[in-house]
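Hi P.,

Sorry for the delay on this. The queue was packed all week, but I finally got your sequence through. Input first:
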Amino acid sequence: MSTTYDIVVVGGGIVGAATAWTLSRRPGLKLAVLEAESSLAAHQTGNNSGVIHSGLYYKPGSLKAANCTRGRAMLLDFCRDHGVKHEICGKVVVATREDELPALATLEERGHANGLAGIRRLDPGGIRAIEPACAGIAGLWVPQTGIIDFKEVTAKLADLFRQQGGEVHTGSRVTAITASSDAITVRCSTGAEYRTRHLINCAGLQSDRIARLAGIDPRLRIIPFRGEYYELKPDRHSLVRNLIYPVPDPRFPFLGVHFTRMVHGGIECGPNAVLAFRREGYTRSSFSWRDAGEMAGYSGFWRMARKYWKTGMGEFHRSFSKPAFVRALQRLLPALQEEDLVPGGAGVRAQAVTPEGALVDDFRIEKSARMIHVLNAPSPAATSSLSIGDTIASIATHHFDLAAGR
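Then the structure:
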């Protein structure tokens, strides 16, 4: 091993790429990104609904709220500077039942607290003026929401990182991390070893495992939830102008099935949130003995299951029953018919769960000796990625004492 890096970033999703690019603008650092798959943005980044979130949902003062608001502005500047296609089209959040009105009011309050200008309450006529096919008893118009392809953002970040001298190694799944007095050795599935002074863990679905490989107890476990989508047939695209969201259940960090116009064309409908039995499990038949066994042996999983089993069974039912999925969508779009939908893609959310069975909602970034671990970065992490990357780079400057060159 002739090269010793200053920092190795594990994980080539958008958070890892943004972190690496931000660090690469600091002169004199030798940097590398290690990605397990054959391409970047292969999992959460590349399999989401491509929404630029506004910051509406997040508790004021939380890391999610602060990073989403700041990150959205940074993302839009980045896209304009580097020619990444995007569109700020706005969205409506729709209440279809009286019992959803308090949660809708809370969202409106949070939106104002998080600095969103121009959001306004809608009556049924106001909803139809924006989305003529949508039905609801009240709604919110959120003008800051947009659409984008986050894989394109990641690719541009990686290009800029390479131009600054950074190295990207795909197909490099980390299998061992060994720390000595002066360096950290990262061993990969290829047999290659990377010697580095510092390490940043941005491994997403594998972030807890990378932490444990590094000798850290993350005090949580990643439980994968698959989100499945349908797409509207082209001759029914007129049903949706832009984005239509339900009022989310405040007990969960998921936003509910919704309609999203995509930046390259087409309209996605979904996702649900069904427990997956493989961390990279994009189909109903996906199964990993290792992943399923770890879940079964984790007390936090069973505590979570006891709390939310009824909701979980409903999600499984929707996964296997197209009519049930359609009924959920028809709450927002009554004219929708089962034959209007064709199967779409799927994504997997890395949901951090504590030993007590709590769903970790906010971002979680922790430090250890010569390492930083991003242990929880769910939505809106893609929207927030440049802000998160900047935050991690700032933490690294002090925690790694980069100013002193150590």
